[in-house]
Amino acid sequence: MMLEVKQASKAYGKQQALKDIDWKVKRGEFWGVIGPNGSGKSTLLNLLSGTERADAGEVLLHDKPIESYRRKELSRRLAVLQQDGLPPISFTVREVLEMGRYPFQNWRGTDMDEHAEHILEDIMQRLDLTSLADRPLSSLSGGQRQRAALGKVMAQQPEIILLDEPTTFLDIRYQLQFMELVETWRQQEDLTVIAVMHDLNLASLYCNALLVLDRGQVAGSGCPKQLMTPELIRRIFAVHAYNVPHPDHGEPQLLYRKGPSQTSPDNSDRIGIR
Ligand code: ADP
Ligand code: MG
């Protein structure tokens, strides 16, 4: 198994962020992790990336505990992209991509792959970054900067990428462009993608499987068609929605209802918990 979470729990003080999580991820899958604010999505990603350790249970990468991997080896297998992937710093796009090569650099900082330069050129071409190569990040738009962040992650040549709400700060065009780039890369390299997603419709369009978290526990796991039902959306998010098949390929899409039903006492109770 590529990645396996077994009975994992994590608490911050008294706050139980995750409880008894079981999850299996196979190579090439595109998972969306969804759930309300505070439901444990980022904590789960932190366990997967080895940034945090589970209090109980375990996280296995290729059947070995994640904490048994050396840092550089882990970085060659697994790369993480945060919501705001890169701050607007003065490094150029090319320099940032080179930083992504650190798991392949020896103690002198020399890339051990003789094709490194070619790899970076190829990534820049695929992400339409070539013309931006020598521009500092601080001069780029949010969408261009997130593409550079994706380039840095690609330079790691990982098997798995973990994305934490990667399109939150992007306009709709860049959101779709970002998802398309990830999807193309997944298909071409058999990459495994795990993305925390806020936009449920975008998640349904691109993910072949969804993991639903609610107050630190798994509330559902399966394909979008099974999960994106008005019942589940109401139960988990306390929101009333219709669900309609996408005209192109039938992926379930949500249409949110308007009106007082969205703020019924029932809902505000649930929202009040968080
Ligand atoms: P999500 O990403 O789904 O919004 P998180 O995983 O960030 O949720 O948080 C889950 C719960 O754990 C929340 O109640 C949050 O307040 C708590 N939490 C997360 N990280 C920390 C931390 N470093 N210290 C204390 N509490 C935390
Ligand atoms: Mg989060």
Automatic annotation (TrEMBL):
Keyword Metal-binding in record: no
Alphabetized InterPro entries for the sequence: AAA+_ATPase, ABC_transporter-like_ATP-bd, ABC_transporter-like_CS, P-loop_NTPase
Keywords noted in UniProt: ATP-binding, Nucleotide-binding, Transport
Region described as Disordered: spans on this chain: 250-274
CDD domains from the UniProt entry: ABC_Iron-Siderophores_B12_Hemin (cd03214)
Pfam families: ABC_tran
Gene Ontology terms, MF aspect: ATP binding; ATP hydrolysis activity
Domain ABC transporter: residue ranges: 3-240
Protein name: ABC transporter ATP-binding protein
Organism: Paenibacillus apis
Taxonomy of the source species: Bacteria, Bacillati, Bacillota, Bacilli, Bacillales
